C-alpha cells in the first residue's frame, strides 16, 4: 500500500516539473544588441546576458552546469556555462554584446571566447573589477 502512494506522489511531482519547464521555455524576442556580464570569483563563474536596459535574457553558472567544488573555478567550467548561456540568448535573438568582466577568477578569457564562438559577436571587452582604495584592514599586531 505504501509503495502505491509513493509512486503516485512521484508521478504527480514529475508532472509538476514538466509543467514548470514548459512554462519557462517561452520564446522571448529581444533586440539584437545587449551586454554580457561575467563575474569570475575564486569559487564560481556566473555569466548573464542582458539587453541594453539590463534585463536578463539568459544566465548560467558553473554550479548550475553541474560542476562541484574546485572544478567550478576552471576555464572548462566557464566555457561550458558560457556556451549554454549564449545558446539560449542566441535563440532569443541576441547577436552582439559588450562584455563586462568582473573578478579575479580563472575562467574570464575562456568565457569570453565561448560567447564569441557560439555566434554572438563581442564588440567590446571592459574590465569592471573593483579596486580597493586603501586595501583591507591589516590583522592585529601579534602578541607573544
Automatic annotation (TrEMBL):
**Compositional bias of type Low complexity: which residue ranges?**
1-21
InterPro entries in alphabetical order:
Ribosomal_uS11, Ribosomal_uS11_bac-type, Ribosomal_uS11_CS, Ribosomal_uS11_sf
Entry superkingdom? Bacteria
- Pfam families referenced in this protein's UniProt entry, alphabetically: Ribosomal_S11 (PF00411)
> Which SUPFAM superfamilies does the UniProt record give?
Translational machinery components
User: How is this protein annotated for GO cellular component?
Assistant: ribosome
User: Per UniProt, which keywords does this protein have?
Assistant: Ribonucleoprotein, Ribosomal protein, RNA-binding, rRNA-binding
**Region described as Disordered: spans on this chain:** 1-25
- Show the PROSITE patterns listed in the entry: RIBOSOMAL_S11
What this chain does, per the record?
Located on the platform of the 30S subunit, it bridges several disparate RNA helices of the 16S rRNA. Forms part of the Shine-Dalgarno cleft in the 70S ribosome.
**PANTHER family referenced in this protein's UniProt entry, alphabetically:** 40S RIBOSOMAL PROTEIN S14/30S RIBOSOMAL PROTEIN S11
Similarity-based family: Belongs to the universal ribosomal protein uS11 family.
Q: How does this polypeptide assemble, per the annotation? A: Part of the 30S ribosomal subunit. Interacts with proteins S7 and S18. Binds to IF-3.
Q: What is this protein called?
A: Small ribosomal subunit protein uS11
**Source species, please?**
Pricia mediterranea
Its lineage reads: Bacteria, Pseudomonadati, Bacteroidota, Flavobacteriia, Flavobacteriales
What's the encoding gene here? rpsK
